[in-house]
Design a protein that fits this description.
The structure is a homodimer of 353-residue chains. Chain A is of the alpha/beta class and 353 residues long. Chain A has twelve helices and twelve strands. In chain A, helix 1 links the parallel strand 1 and strand 2. In chain A, helix 8 packs parallel to helix 9. The structure holds 3-isopropylmalic acid (IPM) (2 copies). Chains A, B: This is D-malate dehydrogenase (decarboxylating).
Chain lengths: 353, 353
C-alpha cells in the first residue's frame, strides 16, 4: 500500500480544534481510497515558547524535513508578540523549505450566504498566487535613538530577480493551465518607489513569453475595491508577500467567511516538503469554544492530497464539503450563520466521504 | 468680504473633468454664503511632463505656498510611469507642506446602491486617518546587479517616532472629538518585523493618555476582510501611509463606488496650506468620456470649505449632494448605475445649493 508521512503542527488557538477534524477526514478518505497516511505530531506553539523560550526546537526544521508534507493549523497567541511567534515557526518553515509559492483559491462554496448583493459573490472564483519567501516580510532593519524623540525604525524589504521572476512565471504557467488565462498583477508603483516599479517591469518582460495570457495590473488600493465591486472579473491575481496576504484574506471575506479558505505553501521542485494551512489565524477571541469553522483546515488537507498525487481523494474531500454545505439543515458553524460546533460540522463531512 | 485664495491643480485624466464641477459648486456656494474664492489655476500634469520633463516647475512648491488651500484633481496617466508622475507632483506637495494627516471619511450616501446585502452597507460610517508623509512610500532604496541574474531591489521604509506619534495622537483626539471613541489600529506585526511592532508599541503607549478611547488592533489582512464582513464595527481606523491608502479605497468600495470618496491632506498647525482631492485617480479608462463621477471632487471641496472655517457652506454642499442623490430620477453617473454625464450630475448639485 502506498503510504505518506505527514508532519502535523496544530499550533495555537483554534488551530488545534480544526486540526482534529482535518485528521479525521484524512483518516477516512485514505482508508476509502486505499493509501496510508502516517501522522507525526509536533506540539510546537506559543505554549512551547513560554516553556522553552523557543517556538520550536533548534533542530525543528530538520525534524520536519523527511516528511512528504506538512499540515499546519495556526500560529500566534496573546502573551507572545506576533512577530516572535510567527518568525519562530511559520515563516522559517516557508523559507527553509523554499515554499516560494503560496497558492490560495477563493471560491464561493454552495450553501454559504455571501455578503454581496444580487448574487454577485456567486461568480467569485479566482486564485491568489503569492510570493512567499521575501519582500515586505523582512527582518532586515532596526531602530535607532531608542527611547528618544529622534527614535526611528527602518524596515527594509528585498526583492530579488530570482524570487520575483519565479513567482511570476509560476502565475503565468498556472493561468495558462487553468484555461482561463487572465492574470492580474497587484502593484503600487505610484507610491512605493523602487520595489513596485520593479514588479511592473518584470511582469511586462515575462508576459512577453506568454502571449496567450491576457494581463492587467492594478494598484493594490483600487484592486481591493474591485475585489468587492467586481470580484467576478478576476481569474488569477499575483502579488508580493504582503499584497498576496491582504488579497487572500479579502477574497474569502467577499465570499462570506475566511473560515473556509485554504492555502498551500508549495516548493514546486519538490526538493523540500510543502505545507498546507488554513488562511485564518489562531482566532484567540473564539479559541477553546469549539465553534471554529474546520473547513479551511479540511480544504487545506484536500490540497495536501492533491499535492501528494492523490487527486481523486482530494476531489472527494471537496465533494464531501460541498455536499454537506449544500444540504438543507447542514450543521453550520457561527461564522456561516449556524450554531453547530466544530466537531458537528467535521463529523458531517467525515460521514459524507 | 472675506476672501480666500485657492490653488487649483486639475491634473490628469478625469481630474480636469471633475474639477470643473467642483469649481462651479464652489462659485455658487461662496456667493450664496457671502465670501470670496479666488482660484489660481496650475495646469501641471503628465502633459506638462511630456513637454518640459517635469511634472511641475522647479519653483512649483513655492508658487503654491501662499494659497489658503489647494484643490487637486488626480495625477498620473499612461505614457508617464506612475512613480515619476506621482513623485513629481502629488507626493512632494504632501511632504513639503507637511500635510501629515490624510483624513478620509467613508460613509454611505443616500440613494446609492451598496454592494453588500441586507443593508449591511447602510451602517458604514467611519473615518480613515492615514499617515501621509513617510513610511512605505519611500524613495530610499535602489537596485544592484541590474540586468543580471543577481539583480535585486531594496526598498526601505522609514518610520520616525515624531511622525508615528503625531498621527496616532491626531487619531486619538479625532476619535474623542467624534463622540464615538472607538479607534482601530491597522497593523501587520506578525509579518513585518520592525516597523509594525513599533506601531503597536507606540499605539499602546499613547493609548494610555486616552483612557476614554476604546482601542483595538487588527492585522491588515483580516482588517480588510472585516471591512466587508462587519463594516458597521468601525468608527476610526488609523494606519501607516500604505495601509491607510488601501483601507481608504476599500472602504468606499464597500459603499458601492470610490467615485464619491473625498480626502483631506491636512497640515494641522496651518503653517502650510492643506490640500483636498478625491480618493479616486485619473481613471485613464474613462477619461475624456465625460462620465466620471464628480462627487469625490465636490465632497473634497466641501472639506476644503470646512478647513477654511466656512463650515456652514461646507455642510450646505453636503446637503446638496445628499438631496440630489436621494431624489427620484437623480442624474447618476455610470459608476452609480445611471447614465448621466459628469456635467449633469454637477449641474444638479449646483442647482440644489
Ligand atoms: C495616486 C497615489 C500615489 C495616491 C496614494 O497612494 O497616496 C492615491 O492612491 C491616494 O490614495 O491618494
Ligand atoms: C500569520 C501570518 C504571519 C500569516 C501571513 O501574513 O503570512 C497569515 O496571515 C497568512 O496569510 O498565512
Amino acid at each position: 500500500m502506498r503510504s505518506y508521512e505527514i508532519a502535523v503542527v496544530p499550533g495555537d488557538g483554534i488551530g488545534t480544534e480544526v486540526m482534529t477534524e482535518a485528521l479525521r477526514v484524512l483518516d477516512r478518505v485514505s482508508s476509502e481510497f486505499g493509501f496510508g497516511l502516517k501522522f507525526r505530531h509536533f506540539d510546537w506553539s506559543c505554549e512551547t515558547y513560554r516553556k522553552t523560550g523557543r517556538m520550536m526546537p533548534e533542530d525543528g526544521i530538520d525534524r520536519l524535513r523527511d516528511h512528504d508534507s506538512i499540515l499546519l493549523g495556526a500560529v500566534g497567541f496573546p502573551g507572545v508578540p506576533d512577530h516572535i511567534s510567527l518568525w519562530g515557526l511559520l515563516i522559517p518553515i516557508r523559507r527553509e523549505f523554499d515554499q516560494y509559492v503560496s497558492l490560495r483559491p477563493v471560491r464561493l462554496l454552495p450553501g454559504l450566504t455571501p455578503p454581496l448583493r444580487d448574487g454577485a459573490s456567486a461568480d467569485v472564483d479566482f486564485w491568489v498566487v503569492r510570493e512567499n519567501t521575501e519582500g515586505e516580510y523582512s527582518q532586515v532593519g532596526g531602530r535607532q535613538g531608542t527611547g528618544t524623540d529622534q527614535e526611528m525604525v527602518v524596515q527594509v524589504a528585498t526583492f530579488t530577480r530570482r524570487a520575483t521572476d519565479r513567482i511570476l512565471r509560476y502565475a503565468f504557467d498556472f493561468s495558462r493551465g487553468l484555461g482561463r488565462p487572465n492574470l492580474t498583477l497587484a502593484t503600487k508603483s505610484n507610491g512605493i518607489y523602487h520595489s513596485m516599479p520593479y514588479w511592473d517591469e518584470r511582469f511586462a518582460e515575462i508576459s512577453a513569453e506568454y502571449p496567450d495570457v491576457a494581463t492587467s495590473q492594478e494598484h493594490i488600493d483600487i484592486l481591493c475595491a474591485k475585489f468587492v465591486l467586481q470580484p467576478e472579473r478576476f481569474d488569477v491575481v499575483v502579488g508580493s508577500n504582503l499584497f498576496g496576504d491582504i488579497l487572500s484574506d479579502l477574497g474569502p471575506g467577499v465570499t462570506g467567511t475566511i473560515g473556509v479558505a485554504p492555502s498551500a505553501n508549495i516548493n514546486p521542485e519538490r526538493v523540500h516538503p510543502s505545507m498546507f494551512e488554513p488562511v485564518h489565524g489562531s482566532a484567540p477571541d473564539i479559541a477553546g469554544q469549539g465553534i471554529a469553522n474546520p473547513i479551511g483546515q479540511i480544504w487545506s488537507a484536500a490540497m495536501l492530497l492533491d499535492h501528494l498525487g492523490e487527486e481523486e481523494a482530494g476531489a472527494h474531500v471537496m465533494r464531501a464539503i460541498e455536499t454537506v454545505l449544500g444540504s438543507a439543515g447542514a450543521p453550520l458553524t457561527p461564522d456561516l450563520g449556524g450554531r453547530a460546533a466544530t466537531g458537528e460540522l467535521g463529523s458531517a463531512i467525515v460521514n459524507a466521504i
